[in-house]
Automatic annotation (TrEMBL):
Protein's name according to its UniProt entry: Methylmalonyl Co-A mutase-associated GTPase MeaB
Residues covered by region (Disordered): 1-35
Family, per entry: Belongs to the SIMIBI class G3E GTPase family. ArgK/MeaB subfamily.
Presence of the UniProt keyword Lyase in the record: no
Keywords: Chaperone, GTP-binding, Hydrolase, Nucleotide-binding
SUPFAM superfamilies, A to Z: P-loop containing nucleoside triphosphate hydrolases (SSF52540)
Gene from which the chain derives: meaB
Pfam families xref list: MeaB
Length: 339
């Protein structure tokens, strides 16, 4: 680690009830500044390879991103100016609805259109390793050798709650690689998944017969996030009932029947996605929402690191312990000095 960087265990100095400004030699280094560990020449070569669509170079950077390695930041900063071109398509719905099967078919259809595709499968976070448990989706294995398809699993949560910055960074990396369509799959219908799906330009909500009645769906807040509702396993009799229930409940949004396993109904779904994307390109409100959420996420993580590094000297702690001063004024003075 460079000498200018502070170890996460080193405290900020708080003496006599006020925060002392650290000297330039020992000030805590923001992770957003990055670690200059990668030489400029190597960094330029690395960025160039990613812009050329090199899978190995992108995978290496994604690993740094997931590990919160500060050497990733200078690379991400350079790549950012090459982003903003990809369309983000969220695929969400209850477990077992057929999301991975649908994504596999969508990849095939998009490749027939000669489009480059990225897939980010957002998985639960392991409480032990912090990594994604499920790994890359095996159902998508026919596309693993296609250089125009990039598939990656990511963990969902940030260290301080909310969406992980790794998701935003992964989107930027795939975008810089030239992926025209980035499919974001979520594993379930919890609050995390709703937040993540809502980042997309278009959200496809996948449902199938037997996933629960309409009241339960409404309670989950699930129906509100879908720009397009898809009833999978549309070749089954039971799907007709669900289809008409949804038509009655949500008359103002497109509802389609498909059979993802057989590839039936895909042309109509792709056509509807295209219509929705044209609205995004005209209005752009969702793109602004994406940027706002990314900024909030980065700020949350940065503030979290600052709090983790904060410490108070023994006299301040002792004064609070003996009730000679209260913790509220102590924290207020700390915040005031932080500006």
């Amino acid at each position: 680690m460079p000498s200018s960087a502070r170890s996460a265990k080193e405290p900020l100095r708080f003496r006599g009830g006020s925060l002392q400004k650290p000297s330039s030699s020992d000030a805590p280094r923001s992770r957003l500044l990055g670690d200059p560990g990668v030489r400029v020449k190597n960094r330029e070569a690395w960025v160039r390879k990613i812009l050329e669509g090199d899978v190995r170079s992108a995978s290496r950077l994604l690993t740094l991103v997931e590990n919160q390695d500060p050497t990733a930041i200078p690379l991400l900063k350079t790549l950012f100016r090459h982003t903003g071109n990809a369309n983000l398509i969220g695929i969400t719905g209850p477990a077992g609805a057929g999301k991975s099967t649908l994504i596999n078919q969508l990849i095939t259809a998009l490749r027939k259109e000669k489009r480059s595709v990225g897939v980010l499968a957002v998985d639960p976070t392991s409480p032990f390793s912090g990594g994604a448990i499920l790994g890359d989706r095996l159902r998508m294995h026919p596309h693993f050798l296609d250089r125009e398809v990039f598939i990656r699993s990511l963990a969902t949560r940030g260290a301080w709650g909310g969406i992980s910055p790794a998701l935003f960074n992964a989107i930027h990396i795939l975008d810089a690689m030239g992926k025209e369509r980035i499919l974001i799959e979520t594993v379930g219908v919890g609050q995390d998944e709703v937040e993540i799906a809502d980042l997309a330009d278009v959200v496809v909500l996948v449902l199938s017969p037997g996933m629960g009645d309409e009241v339960q769906l409404m309670k989950a807040g699930l129906l509100e996030i879908g720009d397009i509702l898809v009833v999978n396993k549309g070749d089954l009799k039971e799907s007709q009932q669900l289809y008409y229930q949804l038509k009655e409940m949500i008359p103002d949004r497109p509802i389609l029947k498909i059979a993802a396993e057989k590839g039936e109904g895909l042309p109509a779904l792709l056509s509807e996605i295209g219509k929705q994307l044209s609205k995004i390109e005209t209005h752009g409100a969702k793109r602004k929402s994406f940027i706002m959420e990314e900024l909030r996420t980065l700020l949350r993580e940065e503030i979290g690191q600052t709090v983790l590094q904060a410490s108070f000297d023994e006299r301040a702690v002792e004064a609070v312990l003996l009730r000679k001063r209260d913790p509220y004024r102590l924290i207020q003075s700390w915040l005031k000095r932080r500006g």
